Amino acid sequence: MTPDSAGLYRTVRLIRRFEERSIEFVRSGEIVGGIHPYIGQEAIAAGVCAALAPTDQITSTHRGHGHVLAKGADPSRMLAELMGRSTGLNSGRGGSMHAADFSVGVLGANAIVGAAGSIATGAAWAARRQGRDTVVATFFGDGAMNEGMLLEAFNLASLWNAPVVFVCENNGYATTMPVAGAVAGSIPARARAFGMPAFTIDGQDPELVLAAASTAVRRARSGGGPTFLECLTYRFDAHHTFEHRVRLNYRSDDELADGRSRDPLEIQGARLASSVVAAIDAEVEAVLDKAAAFALESPHPSVEGALDYLYAMRLP
Amino acid sequence: MKLSYLKALNRALGDELAADERVFLMGEDIRVAASNLTAGLHARFGDDRVLDTPLSEQAFTNFATGAALAGLRPVIEFQIPSLLFLVFEQIANQAHKFSLMTGGQCRVPVTYVVPGSGSRTGWAGQHSDHPYSLFAHVGVKTVVPATPADAYGLLVSAIRDDDPVVVFAPAAALGVRDDLDFASLAPVPLGVGRVARAGSDVTVVALGHLVHEAVAVAEELAGQVSVEVFDPRTVYPFDWNGLGASLAKTRRLVVIDDSNRSCGFAGEVIAGAVERFRLDAPPRRITRPDGAVLPFALALDRVVQPSRQDLLSVLLEVVA
């Protein structure tokens, strides 16, 4: 147990319950379009974001709720965003795949696989040039390791010593494509080829993720350049909630049971006294009750404003 | 003194780098200024402000978006227009969408400059497109200056604009020279066209180098047909008020457009004009052929592009 143990558990629990409740809201129709559940992968967001300072920044993916919540976004406004309400983080203009909260350093979830790594690199480089000591962590899945744009970003970040932490969440599948059928060679070796240190860690254990991320963040902040972390994890739920309806069959029951046997919630919970766990669980539930009420009571955006915010400087 | 269009673009970059610390340039071979656009700027502003990039167009275009999110104002040079096909996702789907998707939490003030769009004669299929219509279609602010003064003024406005702006400098316009002194150079607002030559019988809408072609044809027809040449300067947003004022006089419209026909700029101007204004004759357009790819051989390259002769004969038909 470390001083951060309870905090890490709280973040994992918050993400888990936020997602479980969101899936219910997808089923009841309050969330339109569905979500990409992060359930099973929460240790990575919790550990990496715990290693960052409040002024540090992240970029996220289409499976981004965990990252956004772990970085400190308000769960009420996050849930309102998923429901397309005007009180949402993005005023209902972004939804699940684009949730952003610049006030806590979330530069946005990005729905194009591999796109955000280069955005994070540019943001990190620019902050350094302006004399700020900001570090930017960028999350992506194993599928993104085959996107040329991300590999180009590794090169730029390493070449220009950008304070970036590349966090690969290797959950074994790019939608339904198993990693063994998609990635030739080794994932960390690809990163090492660009001259950055790369480590493979257990992505189910929040404390191991925190330790590895802290080293990477210190290195970036002290001018050492980027680090690559491959976090081995497992997605307990579907690629997308739509999968429940189409009943895709690409993982065996044995494999699912095996994956679910290493649950970050249990791994971290086991480090705490049961009374501490119970107290955190109750507190998280209260936060999410409040979030659900807030989101459901929030107004829908007025349709006259459908194209508000399109241009920062209006057209003549 | 005589100021060339390319020198005016160079001057705009230098002035904006000097005026605003947040502005920086990035692109391939820009320190030695392979295209001449950035000549002298690395020596003047150094490594931090004039950044040579590896051949990684997709990553450095998104890198610019990230730098813009962090408070800088990047300007990217693309030496050939076809590179915009490679980074269309990064401009149209990332930079352009951030402002709305985040509910106004951020701005993406990136400028993309292409000094040499369209045919450069002999550069063939993959170096000769003129893809401004693509950006206008998705709603990215898109600029095609015709004169040195506009090249300066529109590029300055693009850099100062808080949204992404693509600036197409046609290869055939880069050498245009005008008698100007530097003191007369000033920002030109985006979205405001100009009458390049006044006339009363027919309005020709032309962009970039074709403005000069249209003015030449208008002079050739002087005494026979009174041709007004309207240069919208920006493809998107388009100056419908300016075109309306011109058509109120002439009530006849011809558009000359050095890009492909289907879903193109010329079709859009004609559709917008017939929706808004009364015309006395069916409008006409002169474009590259549908789905054209520029062939290499000189005569073939030329025949695919709109010509003075095409414009002249269409004008005579429209006023007949």
Short description:
The complex is a heterodimer of chains A (316) and B (320). By secondary structure, chain A is of the alpha/beta class.
Question: What can you see in these coordinates?
Answer:
The complex is a heterodimer of chains A (316) and B (320). With 316 residues, chain A is of the alpha/beta class. Chain A is built from 12 helices and 8 strands. In chain A, the strands form 2 sheets. Chain A has a 6-stranded parallel sheet with strand order 2-1-3-4-8-7, sandwiched between helices. Chain A has a two-stranded antiparallel sheet with strand order 5-6. In chain A, helix 6 (148-159) links the parallel strand 3 and strand 4 (164-170). In chain A, helix 1 (5-27) crosses helix 2 (42-51), helix 2 packs parallel to helix 8 and helix 5 (116-129) runs parallel beside helix 6. The radius of gyration of chain A is 19 Å and the shape is globular. The model of chain A has no long low-confidence stretch (mean pLDDT 96). Chain B is an alpha/beta fold and 320 residues long. Chain B contains 13 helices and 14 strands. In chain B, the strands form 3 sheets. In chain B, strands 3-2-4-5-7-6-12 form a 7-stranded mixed sheet, sandwiched between helices. Chain B has a 5-stranded mixed sheet with strand order 9-11-10-13-14, sandwiched between helices. In chain B, helix 2 links the parallel strand 2 and strand 3. In chain B, 56% of the residues are buried. The mean pLDDT of chain B is 97.
